[in-house]
Amino acid sequence: MKLVGKKFDRTGSGYVVVIPNELDDLWHVYNLIAPGDVLEMSTVRKVVRSTATGSSEAERKKIRLAIRVERVSYEAADSEIRVSGRNVSESKDVKLGGYHSHTIVLNRKLKLSKDEWDSMYHDRLKEACDVRSAAEVAAVVMQEGLAYVCLITSSMTVVRQKIEMAIPRKRKHSAAQHDKALARFFAAIYVALKTHIDLDRIKVCILASPGFVNASALDAIMAKATAAEDRAMLEFRPKFLLAHSSSGHKHALKEVLADPGVVAQMSDTKAASEVALLARFFDTLRVDEDSACYGLRHVRLAVAMGAVEVLLLTDNLFRADSLAERAQYVGLVEEVRESGGNAVILSTLHVSGEQLAQLTGIAAILRFPIPHLGEHEDEPDPDAEDDDYSYESSSS
């Protein structure tokens, strides 16, 4: 993402002017915008004017509007963010307080103002403007007749195309029909790769399937590239990685990314490091449950003891409607980092983030075992009112 300008004051308020250039950038912008912020950008409005004859006519006019954000939604499939709120800028075309919706798409400049830019917002902005955070890995998860062509960026896994074709079963007298249909299917995968994957920037492209479908697909892709004299695809051949999956459905990508052989090939990518950290958490929890914990209350207790080596959180926790709730997670991250620990935010658009979200969205690997951590719940907790726990006092 291109940072055009920024200004912050000592109180923490300020603004940034940015231009999202990549799919990842839209996800970062979505995570930067919160209700109460002011978003300013150019927009097109239908303006109704009165003519000299007393009639009215409508025209579409480009104007610049600032709105106080009320709602934010992100559609990965459409590559756009919709932000709605009330107008706070002087305009002869839109009254103050009038409702308006901005649509944020790639390559459009926007100005975002906040009353407080906390440390997590600054981290998100820094990551978004890091040129190394662009798409790193492509993956095609397939079975005969079904394939998902995906991009795995530092922040999300995006399905760029779903390919679905009917493949006749291979029988003694219909083998030719089966082979022709399969050839069309592999040709569609080749076209999808050419359309959606920037071969110059991708470090590895995973072809995953049950059995030998992926190997047959790779042979077909290379044959197609040879016939078309497609030098870029032919030179990309060493970057293809064959992997096993239980099916050709998107959810099978989770098991693929957990494969040690795949992780080794993706060792220098952010997505792989997050998968590895989550795998380490589950391994630790299985081998020694006193050396790992999950859930807000248990993690908060461990942080207070200075016991957290790695803190894992999903990014949706920081999009909480309550500022106090968000501040609670920001505080945990800052406390862990100040004690020398590592805090990692997992995207819920990655398989690792999806998996952690199913386990409360927060977990920790501990520096040292804390036996019976749950028993510490009986100790006074100054923040107890934030949890969904109730306590009853018993009289003797």
TrEMBL record:
Region (Disordered): 374-396
UniProt main location, coarse: cytoplasm
Keyword GTP-binding: no
Listed cofactors: a divalent metal cation
Subcellular location: Cytoplasm
InterPro entries tied to this protein: eFR1_2_sf, eRF1_2, eRF1_3, eRF1_Pelota-like_N, Pelota/DOM34_N, Pelota_N, Ribosomal_eL30-like_sf, TF_pelota
Coiled-coil ranges (or none): none
Biased composition (Acidic residues): 376-390
GO CC annotation terms, alphabetical: cytoplasm; Dom34-Hbs1 complex
Keywords for the protein's UniProt record, in alphabetical order: Cell cycle, Cell division, Cytoplasm, Meiosis, Metal-binding, Mitosis
Keyword Cytoplasm included in the entry's annotation: yes
GO biological process, one term: ribosome disassembly
Annotated eRF1/Pelota-like N-terminal domain residues: 1-130
One GO MF term attached to the UniProt entry: metal ion binding
Record-linked PANTHER family: PELOTA, PROTEIN PELOTA HOMOLOG
Annotated function: Component of the Pelota-HBS1L complex, a complex that recognizes stalled ribosomes and triggers the No-Go Decay (NGD) pathway. In the Pelota-HBS1L complex, pelo recognizes ribosomes stalled at the 3' end of an mRNA and engages stalled ribosomes by destabilizing mRNA in the mRNA channel.
Protein name: Protein pelota homolog
Lineage of the species this protein comes from: Eukaryota, Apusozoa, Apusomonadida, Apusomonadidae, Thecamonas
